[in-house]
Design a protein that fits this description.
With about 190 residues, the chain is an all-alpha fold. The protein is built from nine helices and no strands. α3 runs antiparallel to α8 and α4 packs across α7.
Length: about 190
């Protein structure tokens, strides 16, 4: 139980996928203009990350390793993620068209979101079992969503304040992202167990 708690706290706060590992920066900067889009993207990434990790772990353990094809890991995982995103896109189009429209071009970006691929590869590198892998995937997705939602809230508030001309838009957003990364570094001293 302590192992799972350690995985959760570490993945969400200490080694946050965005602020500590710098994965998933494209959707972090692209979808964080509105809180609703950030929440939707976080949910979509959570779903894809969980499924991709499950399928990738099973493929690695039961197909790639026994057949001596571990060197195909990255290519296979990319194909799995692409297929899952296509499936998610079809489901969202039918079930939640408003969310599908809100995500727009960013939904296909999940296919190339290095955070999803990174988690699938990291669980293999860390030697996690299936339970630990799924826990890590969910916790990492929660950390990604947390980063996205906090940043979207800050960006929404920035529209209400007077920002100097040269700093408007992307420059002030990048400055705030850097400050958030520094704030999350404060969690690096946390250890469980």
């Amino acid at each position: 139980m302590l192992t799972y708690l350690s995985i959760i706290v570490t993945a969400i706060f200490v080694n946050n996928i965005v602020f500590a590992q710098f994965l998933g920066i494209c959707p972090f900067l692209g979808v964080s203009k509105k809180l609703s889009s950030a929440t939707g993207m976080g949910a979509a990434v959570t779903f894809v990350m969980l499924l991709a990790t499950l399928v990738a772990w099973l493929l690695q353990i039961y197909v790639l390793d026994p057949l001596g094809l571990a060197y195909l890991q990255t290519i296979v995982f990319i194909l799995v993620i692409a297929a899952l995103v296509q499936m998610l896109e079809i489901i969202l189009k039918k079930i939640a068209p408003a969310l599908y429209q809100a995500l727009g071009v960013f939904l296909p970006l999940i296919t190339t979101n290095c955070a999803v691929l990174g988690v699938a590869i990291l669980v293999i590198q860390k030697g996690f079992n299936l339970g630990e892998s799924l826990t890590y995937a969910i916790a990492t997705a929660v950390g990604f969503t947390l980063a996205l939602v906090i940043f979207a809230g800050i960006r929404e508030k920035l529209t209400l304040v007077a920002v100097p001309g040269p700093m408007k838009g992307v420059p002030v957003a990048l400055l705030c992202a850097g400050l958030l990364a520094l704030a999350f570094m404060g969690f690096s001293g946390i250890s469980i167990g």
